Amino acid sequence: xxxxxxxxxxxxxxxxxxxxxxxxxxxxxxxxxxxxxxxxxxxxxxxxxxxxxxxxxxxxxxxxxxxxxxxxxxxxxxxxxxxxxxxxxxxxxxxxxxxxxxxxxxxxxxxxxxxxxxxxxxxxxxxxxxxxxxxxxxxxxxxxxxxxxxxxxxxxxxxxxxxxxxxxxxxxxxxxxxxxxxxxxxxxxxxxxxxxxxxxxxxxxxxxxxxxxxxxxxxxxxxxxxxxxxxxxxxxxxxxxxxxxxxxxxxxxxxxxxxxxxxxxxxxxxxxxxxxxxxxxxxxxxxxxxxxxxxxxxxxxxxxxxx
Length: 307
Fold this sequence. Notes:
Layout: E1 14-15, E2 26-34, H1 37-48, E3 51-53, E4 64-66, E5 71-76, E6 89-95, H2 99-108, E7 112-120, E8 123-129, E9 135-139, E10 147-154, H3 157-168, E11 172-173, E12 203-207, E13 213-218, E14 244-251, H4 255-263, E15 267-275, E16 280-286, E17 292-297
């Protein structure tokens, strides 16, 4: 997939959601299915500066990674989970500052590249493979080295964006762009100016209180533009059971969130209960594009690191 174009979301205008709650949502964690948790911990510690949190929330033997503003949690699996990028959870991403320098360092350290460093205007991006072939992006547009975003595939960007705003209370764009026209048959983004493909790319974003962006992009499709060099993505599959299993948002009190989602007709996958392996209370719902979403009851960081 080398040479695919960056999926850049910087500059989206954020607007209030009308969320009927005094509590703002925080991005809590990305949940991975991994063969070797110790290897995953070592990788994200070394390559992205994440901090190992052993015995997470007092649960002996449960490893987690702290990414400044949220966590990576893991389930151990016996065989590698499916990693082909055909679910609504496309990849996770960190910020960068010095693209060429950061690429050179990681390359010398043996990072496996899905897409080596590319430029988009004055910025740089690169896509790496994690230990279980999860895809991790570095994008210098953030101008920091923290965990920055989760990137989603969607069949309908407007419906997905509105779902996250309505049901989670995240901030979203003041105006959600309509679906763009189909790219002309002779259109070649490689021959145009940087970002030329964006006139045909349907995209949006929402933002959480702790600064993690959820990018919502129409999946690569001949319906508008197939913006990568692989074949278009067909029907999206459920995220659960795959290497990037689900994403989670947190609130101090999840009962009002549950009640709101129930009223809105959201599909509840698992009711509110204590998750013994992680020592928190949560429930699961099916989000747009078959993405599994967990709602966790937890204090926001920094106090939420340990309690």
